[in-house]
Amino acid sequence: MNQISQFIPARGARRLLAALAATALVAGCASSPPAQVATPMAATSSAQAPARIPVKVFVAAMFEIGQNTGDRAGEFQYWYERYWKGATPIEVPGALKPVYCNADGVCGAVLGMGKVNSSASMQAILQNPRFDFSKAYYVISGVAGTPPSRGTIGEVNWATWLVDYDLGHRWAPEEGKPGAPTFMPRKGYEEYRRFQLNPALTAWAMKLSADTPLKDSDSARKYRLRYPDAAARRAPFVGTGTHMTGDTFFHGPGMSKQAQYIAKLYGADDYVITEMEAAAITLVIKRSHGTDRVMSLRGAVNFDQGHPKESTLAHLDPAPGETAGGFAETVQNIELVGSRVVDHIVTNWGTWQAGVPALR
């Protein structure tokens, strides 16, 4: 002001300052709208936000081979064709693939293979504001391996326990006592390394699905006969037991024996399924909503070891014509078994929404 008054008469200076103040006031009004203008805009934006989807059952698969329908089926295709054919995909930031939902509250997605991949997707989906998981049930679904002493190709298995195969200490066999286990659990991880799933829910799953007619194939039948075990030679069936979650796709009787040792060490049921995701996904669900409504459903497409005349390396990388058959039938069996439980929960939602009802 002092510099302006040196060159402009006092009256002119006052006029100039008044004009500048008016200009500043107009500019301030333009850059900062009154509160009453902003509030209706915010209300309009909120009104346009899509309603949350109440999820009754969420089905998680780990991979799909190609498209969701119309080609060779992976873990997701039969689920998709039953519940979401034509549904609009819902993109979720942080998830590997979109989520699909139907009008009955059944939602599902491909989460990705392995513990980190699948649990990251599950976390992103659970935290997304589009979905209401407060009353949801979960079916963690996919293919798996089985020890020939406990299971067979084409069987479908509900988990009673989930055990983390990787979380602990390991060393080379030659660096310990001959024949002794080469695994020791890490202390302090008791609540992360094993989960007992709701026994009442598992019992319901078996009640609803144990008599499901299962698919089989000639190639799977012939392959089973390479094994002397009575369980391995069985036709496909629906069973229960411990599912061992490990990023390591292990092979051979030694590793299978170690998996059984870990299951018993943790007080779980017999190890019957080897898979790569369920314990990690369940931990994510537990931290958000608890584990009383989690189911793990796996179909066996391979044995975790070779037959007596086959080396472990040959079993790991089989020659043409030496692989187990039955993959196409097993992925269909998984959906045939699992959909019985999903449909029952949704149809009887008035009974199930408050929690697992008493088994009758």
From TrEMBL:
Q: Name one Pfam family in it.
A: NUP
The family database entries (InterPro entries) matched by this protein are listed as: Nucleoside_phosphorylase_sf, Pur_nuclsid_perm
Source organism, top-level taxon: Bacteria
Signal sequence interval, chain numbering: 1-37
Question: Keywords, A to Z?
Answer: Signal
Q: Give the matching Gene3D superfamilies.
A: Nucleoside phosphorylase domain (3.40.50.1580)
Q: Which SUPFAM superfamilies match?
A: Purine and uridine phosphorylases (SSF53167)
Task: Tell me the PANTHER family matching this sequence.
Answer: PURINE NUCLEOSIDE PERMEASE C285.05-RELATED (PTHR38643)
What this protein is called in its record is Purine nucleoside permease
The species this protein was found in: Variovorax dokdonensis
